[in-house]
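Model it.
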Amino acid sequence: MTQPLTPTETRPDGKALGILRAAFEVFARYGVRRTSMQDIAREAGMSRAALYLHFRNKDDIVQSLARHYYDQARADVRAALAAHPDPAAALDAAFAAQGGEGARLILTSPHGAELLDAKQSHCAEIVAEGEAALAAIYAAWLDRLAGEGRVTLDAAEGDTRAVAETMLVALHGLKAGAPDYDSYRASAARLARLFGQGLRPR
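Modeled.
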């Protein structure tokens, strides 16, 4: 049975979390490249010197944002999958939870493509670890449902990890190609229904 991975969690303290939220707002407004540490400090309501007590530089902030995103996504996806007995409804809730508020900000920002690129280019190792952990959570959920006879994995030869990774790749593809947030959510809900119906025992 697939077990969820548990990467090292680095929960930011209250002040650091406030800085990260402020930074993400500024990144969405101006883009990562144009944003300065002074811009982030101003948004967070502190001096630049105080900001440097928490983060070394802008790359440190971007990487900390990625870590925090995956910490939150793991918890939210687990909760969403556990809350719904119907597989399609569980996947719809999990896909929505996985994107979180960040997906809305990215897909409503004129700098959305840059924000997605920054996550990949500045945080490749964090992204790889986070995506692996999410795939393991979905796979463990599928293992449990298959054991209860609530889903069938015949089409995937019982490979729950492959199904989970396919879900995640498809979800990311929808986000990258979505013209706006509402379109993305509609497509993600459709994807959840397709997987839910495909997994249903005949």
